[in-house]
Amino acid sequence: MPTHLTTAAVGLAIIGLTAGGRAQQAFTVEQLLDRSSAYVEDLVAKFSRVVAEEQYSQEFLLAGVEGSRGTFLGSPKVAETRKLKSDLLLVKPAGLDQWFVFRDVFEVDARAVRDRENRLARLFLESRDTVTAIERGHEIATASAQFNIRPIGTIDNPMLALGFLQRIYRPRFRFTLRGRDVGSGPDVWILEYRETERPTLMRGTDNKDVFAHGRYWVDAGDGRILRSEAVFNALGTESSVTTSFERDERLGTSVPVRMQFKRGTAKSEVRGVATYGRFRRFEVGTEEVIQK
Asked: Which residue, of 4, 47, 90, 220, has the greatest Cβ tally within 10 A?
């Protein structure tokens, strides 16, 4: 993501949490964002150098009747399916504000495409050159994207929306509180965001701006993110990534457990559902923590 930032206003409305008609807590949107940013920073610190196994089911659908702007009319038809297994690694190199998520596919439709050698983890543990390791990680992720059922780039990243809550990127967005989601918890609020600054963090064809928008489901008490959503619209195509998070006691932090991806045009759509498990933390000496 680019590091050049400009300032955008963030709403400061006072919100009251109520239960049984009594106000329990009041906070501003800015305070809620501060809690969420601190939560994300803690998650990244604890989840960095953790490798997760991703099981990713994809479908390619054709519209029965042509719609418009990423929507179907009529019942879509599944034209092709694919199942991928990958290692997913989040890395925050020392001395850098940015963090990176890399995917390394090792199995396609039950057929091995490489040895299971934890090469992403070894890449960052054994390399003394962080820049070279990041470049190599991007190469691996780009090569792995070729196994997708259709070209969708690398936007299907379960941690993508959390990146927008980093303090260096928050001024690029307008944040609006949309009320509580009592079905998700008594203090869970839906926080909507919309990118307002150019150049945008995500780039489209011919390096055009692609504005991000979406929602977070936030526990107001501690800023914990239960679910995140990122949506992008460009040239008649809509892409969305929705991720659910749960706490993993072994790692001492929340982890992604399920990602839903969709990329649609008027004529076709790619849908994907990924689940995550077998979390392993790699440090010098390689300590492995298995999630049961």
From this structure: 47
